[in-house]
Amino acid sequence: MPRRRVSMGAYTDYSPALMTDMYEYTMLDACLKDGTADRKCVFEVFTRHLPEGRRYGVVAGTGRILDALEHFHLSEGDLKFLSDRKVVSPETIKWLENFRFSGTIKGYREGEMFFPNSPILQVEGTFGECTLLETLILSVLNYDSAVASAASRMVSAAKDRPCMDMGGRRTNEWAAVAAARAAVVGGFKGTANLLAAQIYGLKAIGTAAHCFTLVHDDERQAFRSQIAALGENTTLLVDTYNIEEAVKTAVEVAGPQLGGVRIDSGDLASLAQRVRNQLDALGATNTKITVTNDLDEYALAALQTAPVDSYGVGTMLVTGSGAPTCAMVYKLTEREGADGVMTPVAKKSKNKATVPGRKLAFRSYEYNLADCEHIISGSEKALAAYQPNPEWKNLLVDYVDHGTIDPQYQGHDAIMAAHEYRAKALAELPITAQSLMKGEPVIPTETTVL
Amino acid sequence: MPRRRVSMGAYTDYSPALMTDMYEYTMLDACLKDGTADRKCVFEVFTRHLPEGRRYGVVAGTGRILDALEHFHLSEGDLKFLSDRKVVSPETIKWLENFRFSGTIKGYREGEMFFPNSPILQVEGTFGECTLLETLILSVLNYDSAVASAASRMVSAAKDRPCMDMGGRRTNEWAAVAAARAAVVGGFKGTANLLAAQIYGLKAIGTAAHCFTLVHDDERQAFRSQIAALGENTTLLVDTYNIEEAVKTAVEVAGPQLGGVRIDSGDLASLAQRVRNQLDALGATNTKITVTNDLDEYALAALQTAPVDSYGVGTMLVTGSGAPTCAMVYKLTEREGADGVMTPVAKKSKNKATVPGRKLAFRSYEYNLADCEHIISGSEKALAAYQPNPEWKNLLVDYVDHGTIDPQYQGHDAIMAAHEYRAKALAELPITAQSLMKGEPVIPTETTVL
To answer: Domain Nicotinate phosphoribosyltransferase N-terminal: where (chains A, B) (predicted)?
Structure first.
């Protein structure tokens, strides 16, 4: 697959610069007036907790943030809108005219595991430029990581059987594209979504719908038509009327070389067993069985002993299997004071207090298995002097250096690298991570304030 | 607000034509080869059940489908992609070159209540053109209606207090735009999302974030700055450090004309009560109190007696408050046979069987309250001869007539009309609809097959 540079068409007419909450612009306006907009700042993205009972999360979406950053500038239409609605003052409009993010971004890799308080993304720049990114960064990371985290659990539950994204119809049409990408980061092997396949170079997969059988005069004609168009290696949908008859017809029409059959209703385990035996008896021993129908990780685990070859997962994938968002937040942790010195800051809101200071993040291992997430916080000076254990894994990579994006984290190759990385990082966690039993995060997070 | 025609920039480079599952195109390919692609068809969108315990759903998104239809044609890039990936044959590429939907669409209004089996959308055209729309139509209706349905419950629970969408950061960045629109259909009064405000002409609202207080040397300077930029009618965030001190500072800085304060943490009801008393004691009797912090319809109901003036709702709005999708499906119900006669069809899949034949839909009333949803199904001829009770409300309106879109259902005015319509339609349901207790749909759906 050739490496594809992504240029989100969505951002051509509507830039991501207005994919934001109004208060980001009104705060910018006030801070430009009083001079604090130029203060150097560090913002960090983290979540206070994983969804109930989850053992780990999987980071996804960072590459999409980089794509969006490339287009994060205001069009004439955007400026006119902000001006007409009096969202900001004319002076701020002027400031926004040539806006480009010129800061630095570090963070966890896509496909990396995360835990409560992991500093998933760290954005450093002036207050003005960092605050404008808040909503967009959170939208991307909260949704994509929710999908990747659910996908990863499903892939574990499916053991070595491939999982395919078929969930586009059950979420917003653009979320569907992001979900397909995040599913692959989370371990899925392909997607039914053509736009995701086009934009990100993903493998596209598909079978047929019940309407295809119904529009034909009978099932035999439908199967004949599909094989004529797609070849005998196609997958025929066999549960429109009567599964046993459909399987018989399918093998009669395609011959024993038939690629596969799909079952989309009923008791999937016992139906798969019956269909497998029937296919074998008909000589179609290499014909694959794929099943679909509101699958989640628990259903996949229950199907482990059934003779199924692959899974199509829809609703529960794109809605994060009960956790459709990650509760990630974007918080100011350090800023320049009136004296020009960088100072750790934190809010003290009840149950929502934050840890002041920028963070370093490492993972330690014992017998090749992760045993702790170490978050080190402190002043710029203290962190510069800090010597981590050399055997720890440094979890922060450099995404953007003073406005320059590292392209290795964008496009198709980055997604496939994240796909591989997830499998490796998951294998390095205690095996309890792969349990579907509800429990605590599989490793503790220790925060050290220097 | 001037009426805005919507031209989704997202569709300029990436047309909605690839926001679809691959099998729609492979089915088209097979059907073009065997001649069934030209068969006249009727597809219908419905859900088999509401989310557990919900009394009704609210339709939203149909106007966005019309926007997408205007752009539903394949660019050269799209055709090249389908060709390079060998998704379809060269003959099908040719057919797709000038593709425009030329069929007819009827359906429920946006803002209308729906129940199990309500035919929310009815798409009539050739098999080829109708099948290509499946995924996109479902993506839009499933997500937008999930948000509008949750919004409607929240608005009921909030009584007359305005609810504002602040959820953009907790869902995909484009889903956020759709969610803001759907929230207004569902009864919300405004959104923090600027792009939604721009595209759909919605009211934009906002306060300030904790980082705004933190970037300043102290809270007093932050409040001064915000008032200098936005005037004393602005809303100050008072829970960064200590709420009581912040309220005192706020009134000192702004004077008793201060527009509002926002509380985002802790026990909102008791804090609102304390803050109200403090504000009144300081003479700021007209200063409003807005609260935020993972609100859902249950939290809003619990706040009914607290002195709160408005609500900012985030996560639970954009994730459908536990039901992030509506389980709507798009099923072939009638098609032309080899003999040219329209014939009702249905699949017989276990637990997923469908009712054959196109549907009419009416709601009947007793003492001005809805008492039944009537779904009438049958052959084209039987339906043409059918005489409904003249007192029933006909639930299907004409959206598209042979490819021509009725513009009254697009843009800002259509959203505001849907907003009004929802309030009226909800008031016509038995009051149990507004209960948050789990239960059955508030009126039964009766299906009659002629």
So the answer is: 18-142
